[in-house]
Structure formats: C-alpha cells, structure tokens
Amino acid sequence: MMGKQVYNPYLPSYEYIPDGEPYVFGNRLYVYGSHDRFNGKLFCMNDYVCWSAPVDNLSDWRNEGIIYRKKQDPMNKLGLRQMYAPDIVKSSDGRYYLYYALNFTSVMAVAVCDTPAGNFEFYGYVSHTNGKLLSGNNGDPFLFDPSVFVDTDGCVYLYSGFAPKHGLPAFVTSFKKRIFEGGYVTRLAADMKTVLDAPKLIIPKVGEAAGTSFEGHEFFEASSMRKIGETYYFIYSSINGHELCYATSKSPVGGFVYGGTIISNGDLYINGYSEDKGAHNYIGNNHGSIVNVKGKWYVFHHRQTNRHHYSRQGLAEPIDIKDDGSIPQVEMTSCGLNNGPLSGNGEYEARIACHLMSKKGAGRYGTYFGNLTFKEHPYFTQTGKDREDNPTQYIANMRDGSIAGYKYFLIKDLKGITIQVCATGNGEMLVSTSLASEPIASIPIEQTKGYTYFHTDVNMENGKQALYFTYKGSGKLDFKSFILK
C-alpha cells in the first residue's frame, strides 16, 4: 500500500464510524460520530470513540480511544440502549460539550470534558427551567440526532428532529405521542442544558413543503449547523435518505432556503439519475457535515457495507463554496482527503472503491435480509468479528457483470495491472477508465484455492484517470487488492 496518502474510507477498514461531525480544535481535525459494529444487528452498538489527524497531514489518523461509554448515562446503566449520532461544541467556558440521544427516547443528553478527546463525564439532560425534560410530554416534537451550535454572540442553539413519512410506531416511542414535523431549533442557556425557548420548526417534512424550495428534498434527520461569514448553513439528510443537503439563512432560527445536494452516497443526481436503481453505489441513510481545514472545505458522510445499514464507514470529499455561497454537488471518489489523485504506482486495497454494483446495478440497503435481497450482488465486508485492529476488508461476491470503480489515479507510464482475487470460477477482469468506455485491458482469471495474483500488461494514457474493474465469467470472486506498476 502506498504511504503518505489517504483514501476513502479514511479510517482503517476495521473501523465503522458513521454520522461524522468534523471539527478543528487547535492544530488537529477531530471527527465525532456514532460507532457501528461490524455485522451489527442494530445501529450504533459500540461506545463513542474519537479519531483525529493533524491539520497538516490528513492521512495520519490517530485513534483517541473511547471517549464516552453507554453505561455512563444514568438512564442506561445496563448499556442496553444505543447512543445515536452525537455532536460536540466548545463552549465559552472552554470546555467541550458532547450531545447525544439514547436511541428512540427523544431525550437529549449532555456529557462534558476539558479536552476534545478525553474522558467525557455525564453532565445532564436538556431540560426546562422547572426541571422537566425537553420534549418529555405527549404532543412534543420527537428529538433525534442533536446538533449544537454556539454563535459568535455566545447564544447557544440545539437543532434536532426526525421526520419519517409515517412517524414511528407507538411502542418505539414508549407509547408517548410525538410529532414528526421536520427540523427544529431550541435556544439554550449558557449552562448548555437549560431550555430558553420552545422548539421552533425551521425545515419542513415531506408533505408539508409544497410550493417551497424544499419540495423534493424535505427534512428527514441528521441536523448539523455551520456558520460561514454571516450565513448559517443547516446541513441535513433529506427524505431521499442517500443525500446530504444544505439550506442557508441570515438567522440561526429561521428563514432557511434550500440550497442543494452536497453529496449522495450513490452519486445520484450528479450521475444523471435520481432513482435508487440508477445509483452507482449501494445507498442507504446518510449523515455528516462540513469543515474548513487550513482554508479548504470538506464534507464528511458515510457509506453502507455488508449488505445492511448497521456497519457504516466514514467518507470525506473536498467541496467548493462559491462566491455566492452555493455548494455544488461533489462526486464520490477513492481519494477524498488526499486532495488530488492517488499515485498511479503501488498496491491498493479493493475496499477503497467509490462505485460498486452488480450487472443489474446497485440498490438501496435495508436493515435486514440484505443477504437475500442482494444475494447476487457484490459487497464490502471483512473477515472475522468486530475488532479494533487487523484490517482485512475486501469486496466479496463479484459475479458476472459486477463492477468496482475507483476515482482517481495519476497515471504515469503504467505498464501493467495485477489483481489479487479468490475465485470459484473462470473468467476475466476487464479494466476500463469509465463505465461507458471500452476495456483497455483484460486480466484472465482461473479458479483458485486461495488469494492469487493475476496480471496483464496495459497501455493507457497518462494523466488523471479512473479505473473500473468488471468481472466476466463463471462462479464468483472476492477482490482483495490491485497493483499498478
């Protein structure tokens, strides 16, 4: 594997950190998120960990370890509830406040620490001045996916909301009647947990946005707030699920106008398609935000693996914020934080594919039974069980017509391509520079007893190039890596 480069996913392949909220504190970039378990049966089954990298080297990621455990919450002493997507903010008192919700409780909890990646301690629940929990009554908005923001004037705002098309079954919300109308904002006191104003709706849900700029991209979940200059950017996941959208306003508490899609984890829209079947990668929920690192802006989001929703991995891409404040949609790539193409020389893991699909295309993962729905499809997976070391991720189950795509490499006098696969049949791996172009090479493959290297000579143009590997043949193969030389 090439050194001093960074790929997508940007963390080691054994790590499953979705819902990434990126922040620069001091001279490091920190990413906070949920913590999925490989092949987990529910979302966010592990404790919160934090990863960080120097702002001068976004390839040098460091695991800061566990920063907060599920059992630290007084409502979760047995650790049976999952901690969903968190957010963090540095308050005017210099301390760091971590906000989260225990699965579907609609309770906003807060932990605090003196450092951005130390041992957080439980601080309290977001509550009214009389001590009652925010959104603790029937008829209150359902709170989910908190985002916290401290403005330049010191005012503290909590953003939240969850708006599925048909709400949630009563048993999920502990038989309390909740409302699911969209995204909300609540102003908090300087103590970071006392409610000053009732939740105010700022982004509508599907069915309530007709005639507004949000129609077709209504609020679903994943609130996140950023301020650029004098403009507030509300980032969220739309009802379409796979996309992160943004809306802008000159006020943190209203007047938001839909801006557009920042990224889709299936490259929908930017690839000319809008329906699930047109995705160039397997899609599912999405959650993330944007960050400025040494003058460059990035969007952090996630992908699904293992044919379901419960093992998601963080991705990142550079974005461009135009002079008019707009953010054009960016494509998924394999190079992401590398800030340019990967070297056209060296060995790369197959798991950094930004596009993956079967002969019949990709699709949308559900929560369960993906092994049946997508039985004939390729997917990202790893050997063994969930762990915090020994990366072994690969692409499994490539059958006739399966495609793995990589963007981009800086090709210079490339002479050959070698692939490492484990095959149950015979065939060939066709190599092309786009989904629409003719193959530039064919790598013959024979049935193997384990991982085996197969090679072909190649003659391709120098410069920035994508590489697409398409399997043609019998049986199926697991794709572990490829070598450019």
Low-confidence stretches: none
> What oligomeric state best describes the polypeptide chains here?
single chain
Which radius of gyration do the C-alpha atoms yield? Answer: 23 Å
Cα shape: globular
The secondary structure category is: mainly beta
Main pleated-sheet profile: 6 strands, mixed
Topology:
Blueprint: E1 21-25, E2 28-32, E3 48-54, E4 62-68, E5 87-90, E6 96-101, E7 108-113, E8 121-125, E9 140-141, E10 147-150, E11 156-160, E12 178-179, E13 182-188, E14 200-204, E15 219-228, E16 231-238, E17 243-249, E18 257-264, E19 289-293, E20 296-305, E21 308-319, E22 342-343, E23 346-349, E24 355-357, H1 370-373, E25 379-381, E26 394-398, E27 403-411, E28 416-423, E29 427-432, E30 441-445, E31 452-457, E32 463-473, E33 477-484
Parallel strand pairs: 9-12, 22-27
Antiparallel strand pairs: 1-2, 2-3, 3-4, 5-6, 6-7, 7-8, 10-11, 11-13, 13-14, 15-16, 16-17, 17-18, 19-20, 20-21, 23-33, 24-27, 25-26, 26-33, 27-32, 28-31, 28-33, 29-30, 29-32
Protein architecture, described:
With 485 residues, the protein is an all-beta fold. It has one helix and 33 strands. It has one helix at residues 370-373; strands spanning 21-25, 28-32, 48-54, 62-68, 87-90, 96-101, 108-113, 121-125, 140-141, 147-150, 156-160, 178-179, 182-188, 200-204, 219-228, 231-238, 243-249, 257-264, 289-293, 296-305, 308-319, 342-343, 346-349, 355-357, 379-381, 394-398, 403-411, 416-423, 427-432, 441-445, 452-457, 463-473, 477-484. β15 (219-228) and β16 form a beta hairpin.
